[in-house]
Amino acid sequence: MNVCNQAEIKMFPPEVTYSKLRWFWTIASLLLYIVDIVTDVGLALKYVRDRHLLWAGLTLFFVFVGLVATQIFSYAWYIDDNVLNPGGKTIKSGLGSVGLVSLHMLGMGIFTRYVQLLKVGHKELWSADPMEVKRAAHYRLFCLATDLSMLKLFEAFLESLPQLLLQVYLVLDHGECSLAQYVSMAFSFCNAAWALVDYRRCLRRTLHGVPEMPSGLPTVVYLLYKLFTITSRIMAFALLLSLSAYSAAALAALWLLGNLWAHLLRTDFCTGRKKEWVYRAVVGVVLTFTFFNVKGRDTRAPMSIYYLFHAALNAAALLLFATLWSPLPATATAVVTASLPTQATELWYFWPVAGVIATGTVVGLVCLAVYYARLHPRERRQEADEVDGPSPPEAGRRMRAFLKP
What we know:
The chain has 405 residues and is mainly alpha-helical. It contains 14 helices and no strands.
């Protein structure tokens, strides 16, 4: 599907291969993606049956936002990669242009890419082609996998993590503790974790001059850094929301700051201005939860500022809650207890949540320091300046503009 640059294929390390094991892991990733969506929709239906229409609406809203955003980028990348012939009637994957539009209108963009990756992967991995042919085939498979992993990353930050935040808030503030809720949170967490690691590994394997991410300890430490810092951030947000629903304005402000940062950096990820604005809005959501290199390479100062602010926000959430929280008045308590569990009117969760926030912040930042000081793979050489060289194919240009972990 991607237009593979022959020069980049030659620079692709011959020892890096798209293995059959990875092909089977792609099936597991697809199943996890499906189950994550199904559990969220099932939870929304449960809320409808219980007449919690606002909760059901918010749960479905996050599913809808993640679905729509991924369809927009998926379709745009198909067009950018010149999959339409000059007549605009056929697609190299065998789909017509109308069929491609229809599939994305139905929310099947990611599924289409999964099917194509599995189909092409099965054909290439179980063939007996010469090594040079296989080298190009493996590079193409990683190109396809990288696009898919980027879409999964968007979906994780637009759907899985907001969904996780919503459900944690409902558990803390409303005492809503159903099995369906815990299942939804578990799969949202697993989907986000998978997306983070898979994206990093796929992207590094498609960029020449950039060593791939070693498996084992480096991958584990990187994953722990992301998961601990993101978990502490979600718990801090949930604590603020349980203090006051108006704290959602602070979340909106953080999103606006991330969006503004992407604008100030003049990101050039998309081929059109409107699509670039959508991309920057998505980047704002990503930066609300964790740090990514939006553009450029020197990230030591921005990352340091980001995580200092991250630690300060977590500490402020604990301080504000401990200072401002007060139990409901007796008259209000009598009304609330008719519809909510007794524990929802008590400060039953502060110390456990405080422990999670403090532990997540400290352990996450320690893992961050260890990873970048000792385990982060160093680039073998500097890439040539794109401005000075020939214009790369759109797929190659896009990969170099992807968010850098």
